[in-house]
Every structure is written in structure tokens, then in C-alpha cells.
């Protein structure tokens, strides 16, 4: 296998192209690669090697970030099949999910107004659980069923949930700031 | 060339040649320099056996500069010209600062605030360089030679401007920066080595002027920063300030002049430090008005008036945990760093928060410098195969661009592992538009106005097209020091235009030259000698690196004629380095770098391949 700067992320780490990744193997491969290419290894080398090292280390980090986060990994797998789940043209998500989404949003707003850190933290936990469920579903759809379109919907749902979770975190942080 | 040693132990570059490298903790209150000798990191003392160098610079009336204890002793006498805690001004504008009780004459200058002193207007970068110069000569005297470089530590929470300013200060002091290293990471290195720990650790660093909290994962010799938070304007100084205000109130004093302010702040600090080991402290002073201050401060009162400061450190701590996606119970140990963590109230609060006794077995003043020294030793290539480790660091604040409506679009989110590059595409919004402006910002807030402005630049020469047809790709690259460069190029037309911005607060080469010439009497000669010396060092290090690379891989990776060309280039460089033409040396260094790029590429590919084949697993273990 010849290392190719533009190689597929999975190939780069020597992992099978699937949603379920062996986290430990990914971490290990990432560290092994960084151990070879990281700029700290070249702090004393010539310019040419320094430059290459930075490019490689950047490339390896990009691949790692993509494969490590479930959302980005699923999106990446779909993109390899020509499906742009998070692109501009998207099908609507089921009304049921959107309702749930609105409920959570309202919950966030209420808790924010009431400066209620307890409710915010509870919501944070709910969203964490929801994200886990969606991630499990993705594993099923992508690895077992090959249900690409359904998986694209799940990716979008997961993004909704994660965005909301981020906003909850920001709200919590804002409460702590003052 | 640490890499060579990893791939094939035994063929390392001239092992007898120990490169002198140091770690520098450039602190708000105290600075230190440390180095690894015979495998052991130790702090280098001054001639009088003192490890700490107070980060105090005094510009003397006779044109001289005094740094350290002597300057510190004169603080209250000459407050305008005696600069303390200059680190707080690094990379900051006047509007960023809390000017209450600052006795200096501050000037609002674009980019960074300046100070008016007996030696004229000084930038915080110049003041910091004075401190670094003292540490550099201390090290060169102790180690008996010129330094190849230094690892300088910065608070993990330092932003772009502050990091760049630190690097500029080192440059001004004639120090080659091997790497800027986050202080908590340095502390973890020191602790990790001494105790062989694994797992998730929190590093709680409360110094004189900054607070940092970092969550790190240590495993198999990899130090990974999971998240970092803090407050770049919170530290032991604020506890002094609280005592100072308490004294003003208790003694019913009117607002004081800068001299008395300094005097009382000094007394407040003594009392605070005394209270670490005693139940009460006495504060006595004679003011310039003749008024006498004589008060007793009990530990209970002290704890009461500083309670809110202690609590103020816990909010960032909570945030750092949340960013790392961890609960308190998952933290295996808490490392205490910084002189202010000696205070019992801090140890108590931190212990309570993490539900465990924090680690305090290393001297909190020295931990950071020791860790930096260890890393400097690695980066200088002194370590043998097998005992290297890898340090994977993150950026502390998100980087982004201003978009419509004064909003920020994040390009590189905070806590991304560096080095990192991210690109985003933008398009024109008017027909025939030929230029596009960009505003680079740093921070987490949605409104540009709430973030720190880093740079503005414009991409010109876009071929006229209808609105929305141009595809302008903006790339953010953050290097291993956490420093940013941004470039933009239009992709559709094939006409490429690219710009690289150096953030506006960075010093230009011209400014560095001016500051250098102000700092030295024989500036002109100095500069030439320095330039020549720099180029010779550069040439030597390239030649050493190449010789080792050839010895190792020349046979396998180069055709005979390729090898001849490289060797001829090396011979030419060797000859030029004997001479005195620094420009010629530089040109040949560049030519040789160009020439050897394909060779470097092949070596890199080979190493990546080996990593994938799992042949070097052992090199990851400490
Ligand atoms: N024994 C002590 N008790 C309480 N505070 C102390 C003690 N020793 C030093 N400090 C405080 O520690 C701070 C300096 O810490 P240091 O780690 O040297 O700071 P920095 O990293 O900002 O240079 C000062 O505010 C100083 O008063
Ligand atoms: Mg410190």
C-alpha cells in the first residue's frame, strides 16, 4: 500500500470503510501516523521536511476528526456514495421529529429566560441520550441494511440534535458567566 | 531529525553532539529557565542561587535596564518606569485592559498598547524581550554555549495576538523558538514523566495574572489536550488587590498616588503569602503623607473577601469539563500549578470540586519550566529512540470570518487538534465584482463585535462574473505553535490570486530591526554579525540533517545521479558557510531545500507506510 496524500480517510488509517469503527484502532492509527509526521519530529529538520510534515500532520488530523465524530463519519460515508446529506437540497424531515425539535427549543428558551440551570442540564442529558440513539440507528442503516436514504435522514436529525445540544451548552456557559 | 532516530535506532545524528536547548516559563509574575542535563531537567539559577526571576523591568534614568529582584525592589519608588506583570499587556489593546490601579502611562496604539517610560515609548513585546534576554544569558552562562533554541510556554488560553507577541519577544531577544507550548501541557509533561501516569487529568494553574484550566488525556506517552478554558485576567494579583481594597476601607484612606499604591500592593501580597502558613497577618506601612497603616488580617476575613475570586475559577473549570464531554468523576487526578495554588482556600475549593486531593508534590513555581525543558530537549533532537513521545495540542479559541450582518462564521472550531487547516467557499454578491474583503476574527460569540479582530485583507483581481459565479476558497492554516495564516483564491477562472495575511498585531521585520537597533549600541555591526551567525547555524543544521538522511536512506531512495546533485549542493553550502556572505549562504540553503524536497517526500511516504504497517508501535511508548 502506497501512502497517498489524497487517499480515502479509511484507507489512510488502514480501517474498513464502515460506520462502526474500532475507536481504539482509530486512535492508535492516528497516533502512529502522527508519531511519524508531526512537526515536533521535524523541529530540527530542513525546511522541505518541515513543510511536508505540517501538510501531512494537517491531513492526518483532518481525517481523524472526520472519522472520530459519528456525524461527520456518517456524512463522509454517504458522500462516498454521492449522497450529500447535509447539502443544500434536502428532503423535509418527518413532522413528528420536527414537533419534538420545537418542544425542545421551547424548553431551552423557557429555561434560558428563567435562568434555570437545572432544566438546562436535564435537557443536555436528554439530548445526549437522543444523540446516542440516532448514532445506533446509523450503524444499523449504514452497516447492516445499506439504507442510504434513510441514513441521510438520520444524519440530518443528528445534526439538529447536536446543534441544539451546542446551544444548550452555550446557554449554560452564559449563565455561569454572570 | 528526531525522526531518524525513531525509524532506525543506532543511526541517529551525531549522538555526541548535545544541542543546548532550554525551556522558558515566561510568567506574569515570575520567569524561569530550565534545561535537561544528563537526562535530568533542572531549573537554572542565577549567580546568587535564585531560581525565580521576577518579571519586572525597570528603565533606569542613566539609560540602563534592570530586570528581576532589583527592579522589583524599586517598584514603589519609580512606578512609572518599573514595569510589572507586562504579560497582561501582551497582544492587548488599551480597551481590552482593566486600567484600575495600573500606575503606567499607557498609550493607545493600533494593535497593542504601549508604555511611556524613561527610555521612551516601549511595546510590551520589548519589555518582555528584556526578561528573555536575561534568561538567555543566564542559560548560556550555565550551559557554556549558544542555545539552538527554546520552548517558551504560554497560557493555554492565550489567543493569536498574545502568542504572536510572545514569539516576537523571543525573536527580539535573539532566541530561536522551537515551539510555543501551553503551560498546563508543560506541567503535565513534568508530572507524567515523574510518575508514569495514565488517564484523564485536569491541570489547574493559578499564577499571578492568569488562570488556566486544561483537561488532558495521557496515554502511551501521548499528551492530548482535550479542552482548555480560563481567564487571562485572573490570578494571585487579584487577591492582592482585594486585600488592598480592604486596607483602604479599613484604614479609611483617600485614593492614593502610584507610589503608595505600589507600596500597599506589595504589603498586601506579603500578607497573602504569609496567610498560606499562618492564621493571621499584620499589615504595616508608612505612607508618603505620613499616615500609618497598621492592620491585622485574619484568615477568615481573607477567605471572605476573596471567596468570589476562588469561585470565579470554577466556572471555566466546569466549561472545560463540558467541552471535553466528561463528568467530574472521570477525572483521575488534578495537577496544581502556579504560586497562587499554595493558598489553602484554593486547594480546598479545587479538592471539593473534583472530590479528591489535588496533586501538589512538584514545586508549583517550577513545574512549567521543567516540563518545557523536557520538551525542548526532545525538539532539539537530543532524545534517543524509544523515549520520545508525541504531544498533540489544540487551539483554545475558534477562528472565523465576518459574514453578512456582522455575524461570525466559524471556520476552525476551538479545541481542534493542531496543526489544522480548514477551507470554506464564498462567492461574490454583485455582478462584475472584482475584489472581496475578508475580516478574520477569533472568539466564540456570534457577533463580530464581541470577538477579537485579527486581520482584514482583500482579494483583488477576481475576473468579472455574474453575482454568485465566483468561487473563492478561503483557507485557514494553524501551525503547531497555534499561529494562523489565512489565504484566499478564486477557483473558477483558472486565474488564481492568493494572499497570505500575517495578523496585524504581529511585528514586521522592519519593526524588529528598529527595536533591535534601539536596544543595542552597535546596532549595525550587531545585525550583520547576527545575520551571518543565524545563517551559519541554519546551514549547519541543514547539513547535519541531510548527512544523516543520506546515510540512512540515500542508498534506498535515491538514484546515483540524484545523490550526486545533492552532495554537490551540500559541498557548495559548506564552502559558503566558511565565508562571510550571509545572503549567499541563505540563497544556497533555500536552493538545497528545494533540491531535496523530492527526497524528503519519499522519506515521509516511507515513514507513513511504516506507521501503517504497524512497525513502529514501540516508538510510541515512553
Ligand atoms: N506561599 C504563597 N502563598 C500564596 N500565594 C503565593 C505564594 N507564593 C507565591 N504566591 C503567589 O503566586 C503568584 C505568582 O505565581 P507564579 O506561578 O509565579 O505566577 P505567574 O505564572 O503568573 O508568573 C503571585 O500572586 C504570588 O503572590
Ligand atoms: Mg505560571
Description:
The complex is a heterodimer of chains A (178) and B (622). With 178 residues, chain A is mainly alpha-helical. Chain A has two domains: 9-68, Helix Hairpins, CATH 1.10.287.110; 95-177, HscB, C-terminal domain (Monooxygenase). Helices cover 73% and strands 0% of the residues of chain A. Chain A is built from seven helices and no strands. In chain A, helix 5 runs antiparallel to helix 6 and helix 6 (117-145) runs antiparallel to helix 7. The longest helix of chain A is centred in the last third of the chain and has 30 residues, at 148-177. Chain A is globular, with a radius of gyration of 20 Å. Chain B has 622 residues and is of the alpha+beta class. In chain B, helix 13 packs parallel to helix 15 (582-595) and helix 14 (560-578) runs antiparallel to helix 15. The longest helix of chain B is centred in the last third of the chain and has 35 residues, at 523-557. Classes of the chains: A mainly alpha (178), B alpha+beta (622). Chains A and B meet through helix 2, helix 3 and helix 7 of A and helix 1, helix 9, strand 19, helix 13 and helix 15 of B.
Amino acid at each position: 500500500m502506497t501512502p497517498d496524500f489524497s487517499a480515502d480517510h479509511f484507507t489512510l488509517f488502514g480501517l474498513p470503510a464502515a460506520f462502526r469503527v474500532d475507536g481504539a484502532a482509530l486512535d492508535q492509527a492516528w497516533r502512529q501516523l502522527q508519531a511519524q509526521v508531526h512537526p515536533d519530529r521535524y523541529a530540527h529538520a530542513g525546511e522541505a521536511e518541515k513543510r511536508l510534515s505540517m501538510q501531512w500532520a494537517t491531513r492526518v488530523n483532518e481525517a481523524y476528526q472526520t472519522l472520530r465524530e459519528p456525524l461527520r463519519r456518517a456524512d463522509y460515508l454517504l458522500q462516498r456514495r454521492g449522497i450529500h446529506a447535509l447539502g443544500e437540497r434536502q428532503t423535509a424531515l418527518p413532522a413528528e421529529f420536527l414537533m419534538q425539535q420545537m418542544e425542545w427549543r421551547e424548553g431551552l428558551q423557557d429555561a434560558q429566560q428563567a435562568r434555570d440551570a437545572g432544566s438546562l442540564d436535564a435537557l443536555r442529558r436528554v439530548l445526549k441520550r437522543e444523540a446516542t440513539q440516532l448514532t445506533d440507528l446509523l450503524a444499523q442503516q449504514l452497516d447492516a441494511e445499506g439504507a442510504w436514504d434513510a441514513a441521510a435522514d438520520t444524519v440530518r436529525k443528528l445534526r439538529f440534535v447536536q446543534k441544539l445540544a451546542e446551544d444548550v451548552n452555550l446557554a449554560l456557559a452564559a449563565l455561569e458567566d454572570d | 531529525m528526531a525522526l531518524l532516530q525513531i525509524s532506525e535506532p543506532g543511526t541517529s545524528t551525531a549522538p555526541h553532539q548535545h544541542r543546548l536547548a532550554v525551556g522558558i516559563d515566561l510568567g506574569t509574575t515570575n520567569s524561569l529557565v530550565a534545561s535537561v542535563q544528563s537526562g535530568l531537567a533542572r531549573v537554572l539559577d542565577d549567580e546568587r542561587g535564585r531560581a525565580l526571576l521576577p518579571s519586572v523591568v525597570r528603565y533606569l534614568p542613566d539609560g540602563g535596564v534592570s530586570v528581576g529582584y532589583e527592579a522589583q525592589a524599586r517598584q514603589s519608588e519609580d512606578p512609572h518606569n518599573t514595569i510589572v506583570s507586562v504579560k497582561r499587556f501582551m497582544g492587548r489593546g488599551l480597551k481590552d485592559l482593566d486600567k484600575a490601579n495600573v500606575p503606567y502611562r499607557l498609550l493607545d496604539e493600533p494593535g497593542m498598547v504601549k508604555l511611556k517610560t524613561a527610555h521612551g515609548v516601549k511595546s510590551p513585546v520589548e519589555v518582555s524581550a528584556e526578561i528573555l534576554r536575561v534568561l538567555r544569558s543566564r542559560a548560556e552562562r550555565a550551559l557554556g554555549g549558544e542555545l539552538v533554541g527554546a520552548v517558551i510556554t504560554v497560557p493555554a488560553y492565550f489567543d493569536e495576538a498574545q502568542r504572536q507577541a510572545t514569539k516576537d519577544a523571543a525573536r527580539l531577544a535573539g532566541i530561536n523558538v522551537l515551539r510555543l507550548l501551553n503551560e498546563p501541557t508543560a506541567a503535565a509533561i513534568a508530572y507524567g514523566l515523574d510518575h508514569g501516569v495514565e488517564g484523564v487529568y485536569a491541570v489547574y494553574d493559578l499564577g499571578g495574572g492568569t488562570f488556566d484550566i486544561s483537561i488532558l488525556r495521557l496515554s502511551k506517552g501521548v499528551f492530548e489536550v482535550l479542552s482548555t478554558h480560563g481567564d487571562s485576567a485572573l490570578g494571585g494579583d487579584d487577591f492582592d488587590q482585594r486585600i488592598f481594597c480592604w486596607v483602604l476601607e479599613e484604614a479609611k484612606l483617600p485614593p492614593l498616588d502610584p507610589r503608595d499604591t505600589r507600596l500597599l500592593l506589595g504589603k498586601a501580597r506579603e500578607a497573602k503569602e504569609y496567610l498560606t502558613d499562618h492564621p493571621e497577618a499584620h499589615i504595616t506601612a508608612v505612607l508618603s503623607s505620613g499616615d500609618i497603616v497598621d492592620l491585622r488580617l485574619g484568615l477568615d476575613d481573607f477567605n471572605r473577601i476573596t471567596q468570589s475570586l476562588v469561585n470565579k475559577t470554577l466556572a471555566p473549570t466546569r466549561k472545560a469539563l463540558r467541552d471535553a464531554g466528561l463528568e467530574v468523576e472521570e477525572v483521575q487526578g488534578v495537577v496544581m500549578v502556579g504560586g497562587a495554588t499554595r493558598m489553602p482556600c484554593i486547594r480546598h475549593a479545587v479538592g471539593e470540586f473534583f472530590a479528591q486531593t489535588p496533586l501538589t508534590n512538584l514545586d508549583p513555581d517550577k513545574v512549567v519550566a521543567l516540563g518545557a525543558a523536557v520538551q525542548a530537549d526532545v525538539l532539539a533532537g537530543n532524545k534517543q529512540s524509544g523515549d520520545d513521545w508525541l504531544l498533540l495540542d489544540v487551539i483554545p479559541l475558534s477562528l472565523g470570518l465576518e459574514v453578512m450582518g456582522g455575524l461570525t462564521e466559524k471556520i476552525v472550531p476551538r479545541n481542534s487538534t493542531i496543526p489544522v487547516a480548514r477551507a470554506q467557499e464564498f462567492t461574490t454578491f454583485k455582478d462584475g465584482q472584482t475584489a472581496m474583503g475578508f475580516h478574520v476574527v477569533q472568539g466564540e460569540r456570534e457577533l463580530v463585535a464581541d470577538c477579537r479582530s485579527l486581520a482584514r485583507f482583500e482579494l483583488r483581481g477576481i475576473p468579472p462574473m455574474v453575482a454568485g459565479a465566483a468561487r473563492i476558497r478561503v483557507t485557514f492554516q494553524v501551525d503547531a505553535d497555534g499561529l494562523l495564516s489565512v489565504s484566499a483564491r478564486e477557483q473558477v477562472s483558472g486565474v488564481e490570486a492568493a494572499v497570505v495575511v500575517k495578523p496585524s498585531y504581529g511585528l514586521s521585520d522592519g519593526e524588529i530591526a528598529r527595536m533591535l537597533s534601539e536596544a543595542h549600541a552597535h546596532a549595525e555591526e550587531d545585525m550583520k554579525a547576527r545575520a551571518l551567525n543565524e545563517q551559519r547555524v541554519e546551514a549547519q543544521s541543514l547539513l547535519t540533517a541531510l548527512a544523516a538522511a543520506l546515510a540512512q536512506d540515500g542508498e534506498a531512495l535515491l538514484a546515483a545521479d540524484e545523490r550526486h546533485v545533492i552532495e554537490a549542493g551540500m559541498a557548495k553550502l559548506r564552502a559558503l558557510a566558511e565565508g562571510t556572505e550571509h545572503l549567499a549562504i541563505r540563497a544556497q540553503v533555500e536552493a538545497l531545500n528545494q533540491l531535496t524536497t523530492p527526497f524528503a517526500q519519499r522519506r515521509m511516504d516511507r515513514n507513513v507506510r511504516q506507521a501503517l504497517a504497524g512497525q513502529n508501535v514501540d516508538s510510541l511508548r515512553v
